[in-house]
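Hi everyone,

Forwarding the result from last night's run.
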Amino acid sequence: MLKRMSSDDKSSTLTKRAAGAELAKIEDSITTMLHRAEALAWKIGGQVDRIATEGLHLAKGYASLDTYLDARFPQGKTQLRVYRRVAIAFEEANVKKHGVSKLDVGLRYLEAIGKSAEPRHLLTLNIKVPTDGKRFESIPFPRATYTELQRAVSAARLRPEPEDAATAKAAKRVEALLQLAVAAPTGTYRHAPRVRVRPNPNGKGGLRIDVLGIDGDDMKRIGDALAEAQFEADDVVVPKKSDAEKRKTRPGAH
């Protein structure tokens, strides 16, 4: 333990220097051991992946990989799955340099921002780390700390992702044509429900369709019209309407 001495005390300066030198030695030792530990974690992840891909756990009567990992190893499925995930995504040298934990949270960041790039691109990615309020600081992944990455993941999961241009365009097309499909039949002037279509906010692709304001006595007709409107993201097929009918598709019109 360092003694509390005045700043101009020579022995205090020497003590601090000695402590600094000792700390440097310990840091070097920890770094060396961590490199070995990360290399072992990468190898363990590869072994777990082999068990999973070849179904070797079935030979012991375990129906699932998770059950097997929990039963056979004290680290359990959560830790060993992280090892496997990182081992699959990165080379051993990268795991030794950055560590399993940091690379794993980096992969979670890629997922949170909807990045389709290969995992290796994470190593050169700038991470948007929240600072204060609505501000973000762009930090290269190698310089970002584990805590900063965790904050970046949390922030990314809270903010809406930018819509893919093609999906957004398809959403508008589907919305217009489904609005036409639920328009009032020829010769009638009744309320038309409002159709709203947007890219699915769950991040799994596809479209989300909302139909708002359906009259109680018009539910069957609307349901049948929507059921007949078969479409895909880039191709929509709906019952054809005349130009006169198109003019009566205003939402809320009676």
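Residues 232-254 have pLDDT under 50 and may be disordered.

Cheers,
N.
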